[in-house]
Amino acid sequence: MPRFRRLSTILSNSALALLRRRGSFSVEIGLIGVRNTHHLCVVGSGPAGFYTAQQLLKSDNGVKVDVVERLPVPFGLVRFGVAPDHPEVKNCINSFNQVAKNERFSYFGNVSVGRDVSVKDLLSIYSGVILAYGAEEDRKLGIPGEDLNGVYSAKSFVGWYNGIPAEQDLKPNLSYSTAVILGIGNVALDIARILLTPIELLKETDITAHALDALAKSQVREVYLVGRRGPLQVAFTIKELREMVRLPGTRHTLNPADFEGVKDIVQGLPRPKRRLTELMLSAVNSQSNKDAKTRWILKLLRSPVAILPSRDSSSHVGAVKLAVNRLEGQLGESQKVVATGLRSNLRIHLVLASLLLWELTADSMSSVKRRFGRGRP
């Protein structure tokens, strides 16, 4: 059994709820004011936080490490970001559990830096503070209509089906037949796959019960994946695309015009990009199952410029206005996207914005003379 400890004697009467000693996932690491290696605090219990703790505990037999986490439970995106049908990605939790068993490790969940304790407070207590938390703030589309009902961020939707406490009451409206996902990274494909996977297969995963119930009643049968660039610039990887192409009972549509000239240069691409591009070319040319009940469509060279209200309700999304783009420059990954001035409307009632997130600056960073700006969007 994990050992329980109280931080209240150190942090006065802060609302520091203590949980089992475990670990999690993250993005950015910053080391602040390390004076010695006696007792360190790691903020964030994702992979970055746990791998940091692991290395600290290995490097010095005397060091103690406390991990502070905003959520009640550890493992960050490994627990709350990985798709429920990808259990193999979560195997690192076994390693994190071993770290948590170390007698010199302690985990404190439900502690928010900035709400319950400041960075300055932590620096007054610990030999050093390591920021290992991830990007967590939604990036806005910056277009009219993005606040309409029926528009959700990918972060919220993924948190909903993976069980993040703050998203358990999201209740996305899945009563319409068509959805659009703005973005063509792995998270976008994860969401499309979850929306279109037969419910019998989802039952075999660790998806949350409330999401499973909602998806069992879902009327979504068609999902558009919209990206502003071309096939050589897509952000998803071959594993996720292969799963989409092979999704049971689902057909796919890729526009041959988007791939003009690509076949001529594919052999000169780096191996990972070449294999991905060859799979896309194969999907373009393959005869998709015409009898399938569901379909996904890869819509490239399109940028959202407005989200339009429904004809039936001025507060609910009814369409997405897309700008048509073209690529300039020599055919390849570095081509520049240029707007053509053309527009098209896509009639839908569910929008999921799958954009990169902003990093949040830790509380009181100015008081410890460290500058942390917003990270790359």
Describe it:
25% of the residues lie in helices and 21% in strands. The longest helix has 15 residues, at 271-285. It has helices at residues 47-59, 76-80, 92-100, 119-125, 154-162, 186-196, 199-202, 209-216, 238-245, 262-265, 271-285; strands at 30-32, 39-43, 64-68, 105-108, 128-131, 151-153, 178-182, 222-226, 250-254, 294-299, 302-309, 317-328, 336-347, 351-353. The protein is built from eleven helices and 14 strands. Residues 1-37 and 364-377 have low confidence and may be disordered.
Provide a concise account of the structure shown.
This protein has 377 residues and is an alpha/beta fold. It has helices at residues 47-59, 76-80, 92-100, 119-125, 154-162, 186-196, 199-202, 209-216, 238-245, 262-265, 271-285; strands at 30-32, 39-43, 64-68, 105-108, 128-131, 151-153, 178-182, 222-226, 250-254, 294-299, 302-309, 317-328, 336-347, 351-353.
